[in-house]
Amino acid sequence: MEDGQTPTTVSSNNKVDFTPSTASAYLDPNYWDKRFSSEEHYEWFKDYSHFQHLIQQHISPTSSSVLELGCGNSKLCEELFKDGITDITCIDLSPIAVDKMQKRLLDKGYTDIKVLVADMLELPFEKESFDFVIEKGTMDVLFVDSGDPWNPRPETVNKVMAMLKEVHRVLKQDGIFISISFGQPHFRRPLFEAPEFTWSLNWNTFGDGFHYFFYTLRKGRRSMDNINGCRKTSEPPSICLFQEELEDEDYMFRTNVEELGS
Ligand SMILES: C[S@@+](CC[C@H](N)C(=O)[O-])C[C@H]1O[C@@H](n2cnc3c(N)ncnc32)[C@H](O)[C@@H]1O
User: Fold this and answer.
1) What is the CATH number of the domain that holds 117?
2) Does the N terminus or the C terminus of the chain have fewer Cβ atoms within 10 A?
3) Residues of the signal sequence (predicted)?
């Protein structure tokens, strides 16, 4: 990675700014390693309290195995554990994120949560291993240099499809993939609904000002209706950013992923 892509400037309120100079840095594993070596906790998009009600509609704690993709230094796995979901495996591409997450969980007594270094494009698990796969903001990383969101670059599509095929493979029949994203349904549907996938697709929204999408894809439940058009539980909102959102560092991430600039 070039120098200057990962500035660690300290603002007047003593917050370290990890915003890279170009959004494509989010695709660079070195960016994440450098960031995680000094950042202890950052919650991309929103924390658990904002979508807990949606999780609880889908995940029943009893004997559910959950795989979290790209855990970073988020507290999502701890929150799931507190809600009774104890069979959790987290992966991240960054060895530094994984090492720090393992230490943090051990210090807090969450010894049952497994954390390992792995690439979500090549998951080291047998087929049909998990009841749930969940990701928050991790798939969106693959879109940061997608170009025209209506017609993403073939390289982007290939990576996203590789990831989705892996998620589909490791999910049990009837298992659910939860994707928490700012990508709007008209951009995500063509990929989620590619012919090779047997999952049904639904979504909800959450958040104030800027709305995030909570997609649920249930394996083996795709119907002819869903092939011709999926059901949605709320209309996608128009783009609307509050000042608070504009000041948030992941604003840059979003603008480069979707059509906010168009
Ligand atoms: C935008 S952050 C989201 C972190 C966390 N999920 C959250 O909600 O705060 C993206 C995370 O995905 C990880 N990541 C990026 N590419 C990955 C890949 N191919 N496989 C696994 N993790 C990846 C990064 O290291 C980073 O931790």
Assistant:
1) 3.40.50.150
2) C
3) none
Which residue CA neighbors atom 17 of ligand 1 most closely?
A: 93
Q: For residue 132, what are its two tokens? A: 């749930």
205 within some domain: yes
Which atom of ligand 1 is the closest one to the Cα of 43? 9
40 inside domain: no
Q: Residue 47: CB within 6 Å of ligand 1?
A: no
Residue scoring higher pLDDT (253 or 162) = 162
76 in a structural domain? yes
93 lines ligand 1 (CB under 6 A): yes
CA-atom Rg of the chain in angstroms: 18
Note the pLDDT tens digit of each residue in 60-81.
Answer: 887 799 999 999 999 999 999 9
Q: Indicate the SS3 state at residue 164.
A: helix
Average pLDDT of the segment spanning 86-103 = 98
Which mutation among 1, 134, 138 tests ligand 1's pocket best, with the greatest number of atoms within 8 A of CB?
A: 138
17 DSSP β-pair partners: 9
Residues 37-48 pLDDT 10s: 999 999 999 999
Residues recorded for the chain:
262
How does the average pLDDT of the chain come out, rounded?
Answer: 85
How many domains does the chain fold into? Answer: 1
72 lines ligand 1 (CB under 6 A): yes
Distance 224 CA to ligand 1 centre (A): 33
Full domain range(s) for residue 229: 45-257
For residue 253, give the nearest of 135, 168, 146 by alpha carbon.
Answer: 146
126 falls within a domain: yes
Task: Please list, in sequence order, all residues whose beta carbon lies within 8 angstroms of the beta carbon of residue 235, skipping any fewer than 6 positions away.
Answer: none
Q: Is the pLDDT of residue 5 over 70?
A: no
